From TrEMBL:
<dbReference type="InterPro" id="IPR042208">
    <property type="entry name" value="D-ser_dehydrat-like_sf"/>
</dbReference>
<comment type="similarity">
    <text>Belongs to the DSD1 family.</text>
</comment>
<dbReference type="GO" id="GO:0036088">
    <property type="term" value="P:D-serine catabolic process"/>
</dbReference>
<dbReference type="GO" id="GO:0008721">
    <property type="term" value="F:D-serine ammonia-lyase activity"/>
</dbReference>
<keyword id="KW-0413">Isomerase</keyword>
<dbReference type="InterPro" id="IPR026956">
    <property type="entry name" value="D-ser_dehydrat-like_dom"/>
</dbReference>
<dbReference type="InterPro" id="IPR029066">
    <property type="entry name" value="PLP-binding_barrel"/>
</dbReference>
<dbReference type="InterPro" id="IPR001608">
    <property type="entry name" value="Ala_racemase_N"/>
</dbReference>
<dbReference type="InterPro" id="IPR051466">
    <property type="entry name" value="D-amino_acid_metab_enzyme"/>
</dbReference>
<protein>
    <submittedName>
        <fullName>Alanine racemase</fullName>
        <ecNumber>5.1.1.1</ecNumber>
    </submittedName>
</protein>
<dbReference type="GO" id="GO:0008784">
    <property type="term" value="F:alanine racemase activity"/>
</dbReference>
<keyword id="KW-0456">Lyase</keyword>
<dbReference type="Pfam" id="PF01168">
    <property type="entry name" value="Ala_racemase_N"/>
</dbReference>
<dbReference type="Pfam" id="PF14031">
    <property type="entry name" value="D-ser_dehydrat"/>
</dbReference>
<feature type="domain" description="D-serine dehydratase-like">
    <location>
        <begin position="253"/>
        <end position="344"/>
    </location>
</feature>
């Protein structure tokens, strides 16, 4: 089957680019002597998790328990659950994961959370290995200063059921930093992480590294970094390739195929993909997606099943014309679809993959 025969809208995965992105990140990590522990929240797909592990990923990172459970058939042996676990109702599921893996690491994300995690660990009935979250500027989870980190470390040292196993950060703030400030920001971030780590135990590992920073860390700042955990790099999106210059636009491996369904005015086209396809995530400029072929076509507004298309090239669009788009934020696009369609370099369909961890938010 050719891409032209697919129903619209469809989520396309460009297989050669996907393979390139997976290999490039793994090679960069290998060359730097760092482990790759990719976050699966972007793809939620067993075939991609399997390929990541086959190429050399040391383990996987997941946000939620159900994501980790969904990834078990990949053969993964080490999972880091990078989220604040608090729910005693999850104790049996956490214990089951511990039993099925060689290593399950959990997160400890604040002083308040440390107390809850210690209580939860007693209910799990297995020793838990905890990575301490450090807030490096996103202003989300994580300790804000050395003193707080030291208090958590001291508290865990008195809790036989939770062992401090290292430090991590999610540096999502880099998505909104200008390109020319990224390198200096990475150096500053790593200096701050090392200072907190060294104040507690210089032997403990550091696990920073999102898609915004992982390649730069690998290419010049890997000293003392044991692992990185990028997610979006597998596909890429506008956030990585147009809003910033982390990834070439030509490497973006996921596109949304959509169809022009109306031309209400000369400068507006409507497509059959809206927020139920692109999600409501947009760039800072308010764009949900742009044409993958370089035409001046931007989805500037979405309703559930309509995308509003503007740009100089709207004038030449015909009803029924199909356009391939690069979305603003790829992770939420994958979570909205039941399957993705793999296409080869000649646009022929090579597979249809169910999104194994779709909707796994629990
Ligand atoms: C804790 C954590 N680690 C890793 C990632 C991966 O980041 P990215 O998708 O920017 O590579 C995320 C993304 O939200 C995250 O929240």
């Amino acid at each position: 089957m050719h891409v032209d025969d697919l129903a619209s809208p469809s989520i396309l995965v460009l297989a050669p680019r996907l393979e390139h992105n997976l290999r490039a990140m793994q090679s960069a990590c290998d060359a730097a002597g760092m482990e790759l522990r990719p976050h699966i929240k972007t793809h939620k797909l067993l075939p991609i998790a399997r390929r990541q592990l086959e190429l050399g990923a040391k383990g996987l990172t997941c946000a939620k328990l159900s994501e980790a459970e969904a990834m078990l058939p990949s053969g993964v042996r080490e999972i880091f659950l990078a989220h604040s676990l608090v729910d005693h109702r999850q104790a049996a599921r956490i214990a089951a994961l511990c039993d099925q893996l060689d290593e399950l690491r959990v997160a400890v994300t604040s002083e308040a959370h440390a107390e809850t995690l210690i209580t939860l660990a007693a209910q799990v009935g297995r020793p838990l290995h905890a990575m301490m979250a450090i807030d490096s500027g996103l202003d989300r989870e994580g300790v804000r200063d050395v003193a707080s980190a030291q208090r958590i470390a001291a508290r865990l040292a008195r809790a036989p059921q939770v062992e401090l196993a290292g430090f991590y950060t999610h540096e999502g703030q880099f998505y909104t930093k200008p390109n020319d400030q990224r390198e200096a920001g990475i150096v500053r971030m790593l200096t701050d992480l090392r200072a907190i780590r060294d104040a507690i135990d210089p032997a403990l590992p550091l696990w920073p590294g999102s898609s915004m920073t992982a390649r730069a860390i690998a290419d010049g700042h890997a000293d003392g970094v044991q692992a990185v955990r990028p997610g979006a790099y597998v596909f890429g999106d506008m956030a990585l390739s147009t809003s910033t210059d982390v990834m070439p636009f030509a490497d973006v491996a996921l596109e949304v195929l959509a169809t022009v369904v109306d031309r209400p005015t000369a400068d507006l086209a409507l497509i059959d993909a809206g927020s139920k396809t692109f999600s409501s995530d947009r760039t800072a400029a308010g764009v949900s997606a742009v044409a993958a072929d370089g035409r001046d076509l931007s989805v500037v507004r979405v309703n559930e099943e309509h995308g509003y298309l503007r740009g100089a090239d709207v004038a030449s669009l015909q009803l029924g014309e199909r356009i391939r788009f690069v979305p603003a934020h790829v992770c939420t696009v994958v979570n909205l679809t039941s399957h993705v369609t793999l296409i080869d370099s000649d646009d022929y369909v090579s597979a249809s993959w169910p999104v194994d961890a779709r909707g796994c938010t629990q």
